[in-house]
Fold these 2 entries.
Entry 1:
Amino acid sequence: MELRRHFTVLCIITPFIVHPVFMVFILHPNGSTTGKTYKEAYLLDSSTFSSEQMNDFGSFRFSLPSRTDDSPLVFSADGRTVEWVNESRVIWFPVSTEAKLHSGKWFLEFHVEAVKNWQIGVGFLLDWNIEPDWSLFGYLGSSASAWSYDPYTGDIVYNTKSIHSDLPKFKGDKGVIGLELDIPKNAIGEFTFIIDGVRTPTKQMPNSGAVAIPAVCLLARGQRVTIRSLRQLDEDVLVSTKWNF
């Protein structure tokens, strides 16, 4: 769930005897509340996909907000670059891509072109049958189905905590973070961050048949990230060439 300036998102998962119920409440500035209830929230499993779903990997570009004219973020390069340009009272901006990667081995790069001497998050979320879980806190790595690499501190962040620290940091204001995803249909997935060519320890995902959504989280004005070089490793073909992303 993306944080936006005009509302706050709260998520509550309530277990019932038969099915879990997932409720999303939107608190508007005028004090009114609107809500939507989803039943049986679960992580997607690519082993259950139809033939049409098996060939759907989304689009390799950032997901643009419904309105961009008053947004502090600026998107360019056909939606593959995002930059925090204008002032905002929001502390951070989570931005997911429209890509939904599954059923194989994948590689992509996050070209962090400006860190601005502050924390920044790049990584991915797992897809649900409802929508990706940014958690109540709303930053990448704050939920139990999202992982973020912070090149400012050298941490892998998951479920609000650093699960591995003392990892490579950027030496300057920019750098490249590669992400390898090994997400087979019928086995537990794994991933590896690669920081300016240096591999970090491989980590496991919680489920088999995972569907991964690359994402970033900007935490300072002036930060800019471009996504590049999406490749399906087991076919060694650039996705931009094969699927015209």
Entry 2:
Amino acid sequence: MMWRLVSCTLWLFVCLQFLSLCSVCAAADEPDEEVKIEVLFKPEQCEKQSKRGDLVNVHYDGFLAKDGSQFYCSRSEKAGHPQWVVLGVGQIIKGLDVGMMDMCPGEKRKITVPSVLAFGEQGKGPVPPNATVVFEVELYSVSRGPRSMEAFAQMDVDKDKMLTKAEVKEYLKLEYEKEGKLHDDAFYEKIVADIFRNSDGNKDGIISSKEYNIYEHDEL
């Protein structure tokens, strides 16, 4: 009787150890779905940090985490100009939207993005399926972005529920002037061109209210 009890106890112990090992293995197999942020440089003074809906000017290089090979360089795209992006509305991959929050102008980060927040099971171009990617990001400027309904109403001067390039340009000029920043027309035209490239879905030169709210975020 005693031997049978000892045998059952040993068998139960072995089973529990096996289940515990399986749990560890399963956890090890699960992909890390968190964005990892490493700050490479941060200026001592930071008057404004990036937040959702802000218009940011940024350069970023993309690498495959597996072998370090580079698949994208913004400095070699579009004449090498930094990219204008509205943060947090889906213009870039989710992982970059997350990783570029709370950045200061002049800050540099290394952002590691799991595949589920990057290019997923399908991959894209030189990025293979299920690939973790790493971006080295340098942020140049942060300003209030034209992605709120309040901003739409302010830009839509003639109240026709459509935005022209002239309306968006005038809005941006006023926003920069409020911050005491003056720029030439070429500066604003570059931003407007980027905004329309990302938001003017049918490429008719006008952003409709539907195109403006294409990402269907609550505040848009």
